[in-house]
Amino acid sequence: MAEHIVTSYEDELKFIIRRISEMGGQAERMVEQSVAALMRSDWALAQSVVADDLLLDAVQREVDERAISTIAKRQPMAVDLREIVGAIRISNDLERIGDLAKNIAKRVIAVHEHSQPMQLVRGLEHLSDLALEQLKEVLDAYATRNEKQAMAVRDGDESIDAVYTSIFRELLTYMMEDPRNITACTHLLFTAKNIERIGDHATNIAETVYYIKTGEEMSAERPKSDVTASLAHSDLTTPPPSGGAGE
Predict the structure, then answer these.
(1) Is the dihedral of CA 10, 14, 64, 155 positive or negative?
(2) Which of 48, 71, 211, 229 has the fewest CB atoms within 10 Å around its CB?
């Protein structure tokens, strides 16, 4: 009987881990496709991303329900409990990544209706490449329970923040130079923030992987290079340069 209980518990744990892996793959695809839809003004692809978010939400609820049921029935201890608690955390982060991809997809039509500076669009593409690389790395770290790889992912969040800050500054400049740029740049600004937040959720997952493997939380201080709050204040209180696009 004891062997049966252990086998049953291991099957439940494997099911949860497998579903997390499937969620990770789907979240990656949604981010890739939402940015591709934005770059190509592909409304059909954007709609597909929005529809996929409902599927990701359903899997997240399934993982949570199965994890809570497993805790109630098996009362796991130590590393087994960390595995299940970690799965709940990670499924929530992956669900939020799906929401952010959906938000990007929803801006495809709005952005398409206005012309955008190509260098900013390319900047967004570069930012998404960095965020996707972080997401791929952290999902690999989860699959292998590699705490060192997880630590490297968290450290890498600083580069995403730096690129986001650069894009933020450029977008503010375009908006101040010509009010006609404000609508398009606002949509791009929200898109950039969504991508930057995807990097933050990858960092959350990295911290969870570290917790699962070591039983300890990473230090509370994260490396951050997002200084957009101070930039917004300083740039908006500085007069725009003369000879801008609106003249």
Answers:
(1) positive
(2) 229
